[in-house]
Amino acid sequence: MKTIGICIPTIEGGVIAHQEIGREAARRGIAYPQIVTHTPVYGDLEQALKSGDNQSLVKLITDSINRTAKAGAEFAIISANTPHIVFDEIVAQSDIPVLSILDVAANHCKKQGFKSVGVLGTTWTVKNGLYNGPLQKRGMTAVYASDTDQAIIMDAILHELINGIFLEKTTSDLVQIAKELATRCDGVILGCTELPLVLTEQNCGIEVVDTTRLLSHAALDFATKD
């Protein structure tokens, strides 16, 4: 079984990814894989994103992945959606293969037979149209929240969710946004790895695509593949 590397831009999302690999291994009745993790300095990542400094973003994520490689990882995942803005550059500079959360999520949507897919995530993810290409390539279209709702989502992610803060009012607001989006699509991509902590199929009333856990399952698939 291959050793998995996890670049963890935010702790909350990274915990879900790491934990889900172990839980999925147990569900499959197979051995728990070896996992190497590294967490870049989040403040540096946020500054690079806010300033549009893609070169620094690539360096921070690539350095993190390559640190896991030096510790024995044979391939890696990035437990966050937004850094995939520069995914191609990351892959080009990484010492080991890197799985794409975008492809994993889009493939799942295709298998579910979706035609239109809502996308919830950071404003960086949304404004860069991160899921537009992967969905269009598979015959689907992306649907987004209004600018007003997007501002609420971004504030919740940056100031609460990534810090492990889950306020009832914020959760209620996010659920209402997801429900409105659900009226215009077949399923909703939780395109931020912290969103599954507050949004579920039960409270949203529509199928949600948990990108974090799907990526973990894909990592386990790759780790066990000959």
UniProtKB/TrEMBL annotation:
Keywords: Isomerase. It comes from the Eukaryota. PROSITE patterns: ASP_GLU_RACEMASE_2. The keyword Mitochondrion does not apply. The keyword Ribosomal protein does not apply. One of its GO terms (molecular function) is amino-acid racemase activity. Gene3D superfamilies: 3.40.50.1860. Belongs to the aspartate/glutamate racemases family. This is Aspartate racemase. It comes from Penicillium vulpinum.
